[in-house]
Amino acid sequence: MAATYLPTLKQLQYLVALHDHGHFGRAADACFVTQSTLSAGLRDLESLIGVTLVERTRRVVRFTPMGERFVEKARRVLREAEELGDLARAAGRPLTGEMRMSVIPTIAPFILPRMLPRLRQDYPELKLFLREEPSAAACDGLHNGRTDCVLLALPYACGEVASAPLFDDRLFVAFQQSGTEPPPAVYPAADIDETRLLMLEDGHCLKDHALAACNRPELRAEATMMGTSLHTVVQMVDNGLGLTILPEMAIQAGILEHTSIVARPLAADHAVRRIALVWRRASPREPDFRLMADVLAATF
């Protein structure tokens, strides 16, 4: 008799989607159902448990305090349900079926063009769904079950995760060379003009890695944080607006082609970020993730 009162996984999916999107129409699209189907499923859920989870108005979707708690539990249930399927996949052929990976913006455009052809060739049965998002959102999505693994730059506090390091990505100072003398072999952190340093906006961990490597508190206070992407920052430097710090992978991928910018290794302690694949601890797909890490590390 008690089983009659258990919510279905579909109802929990509808509820979590509504919480994520804050809109019935967008939540329905995300679940590949009509809005009326999603609304009916949520009404059935509330009737089943005898509690109002969502306050409905014409313009606003507002979750009740119980609704917020219910969503948090629902995410855990859905994640556990997905891992049941992962157990079966892990017992089969490696790197087959669906995998959802988040990649941070300071990695995605430089590593994916090299990574994807190798995966398509060696693991044609893998369906890899990619999502580009900043580190905080990627780690949040990992713990909420939205993604299975994250391609991340360390150090970064991503919570309780397992990880496999892929390679170290050195940091370079990129600047316009002035005068006729050749540029130095390296660029000491002490020589960076804090009034001309251009960095990515808050939310990009590359900025934190670069500033931590320089170990100059005044840089954080004086640097201009305005770039929305590395390509944008490079264009600003190429137009004489300042200098910046770039990862080696971006330079190798040709981000400085057709510019007058010179790049030299940043001379500082720990002038490097570690690229790693991270996933939830105790995930049944850990063998898949470690194999994926091996493939990615071999690509570079």
Automatic annotation (TrEMBL):
Keywords: DNA-binding, Transcription, Transcription regulation. PROSITE patterns: HTH_LYSR (PS50931). CDD domains: PBP2_OxyR (cd08411). GO terms for molecular function: DNA binding; DNA-binding transcription factor activity. Residues 7-64 form the HTH lysR-type domain. The keyword Transcription regulation applies. The keyword Transcription applies. GO terms for cellular component: protein-DNA complex. It comes from the Bacteria. Belongs to the LysR transcriptional regulatory family. This is LysR family hydrogen peroxide-inducible transcriptional activator.
